[in-house]
Amino acid sequence: MATRRKVTVIDDDRAVRKAMERLLTASGFDVETFGSAEEFLACAGSRATTCLILDIHLGGMSGLELQRQLQASHAQLPVIFITALDSEATRQHAIEAGCVAYLRKPCPSHSLVAAIERATGACGDAET
To answer: Which residues are registered as beta bridge partners of 31?
Structure first.
């Protein structure tokens, strides 16, 4: 039996976290969710994740700040950024931060699953 990949969702909107958890579980992933970057950092078990789905605009530390902190600590986690507040500048910052994909909320489920497949397959192409 194949090992299920663990995906971590960090979004301050509880409804978004719950919807993604249901979708990704149904798609064959193990899922953990966090309401903030700080909550994620405080949880030692989150280190076993294979991919982060990270909201850019979080209360407290932003998704981009979390990505920078993870890179500074040499964490090699692929990141898929999601946002409801899209702008060219935000998209450019996300791509420069090294995301696997950049998706606008609400994102189609097939786009999210495809981005996770790319992320866990170590492909570095960013989707806009």
So the answer is: 7
> Is the full-model pTM beyond 0.85?
yes
- 47 vs 19: CA distance, rounded Å: 23
**Residues 90-117, buried b or exposed e (16+ Cβ, 10 A)?**
bbebbeebebbbbbeeebeeeebbebbe
Helices then strands, each counted (H, E), the chain: 5, 5
Centroid of chain to Cα 114: 13
104 CB-near residues (< 8 Å, 6+ apart): 82, 83, 84, 86
- CB within 8 Å of 111: residues ≥ 6 apart: 101, 103, 127
pLDDT digits (tens, 9 = 90+) for 1-43: 456 789 999 999 999 999 999 999 999 999 999 999 999 999 8
Name the pairing type of β-strands 51-55 and 79-83.
parallel
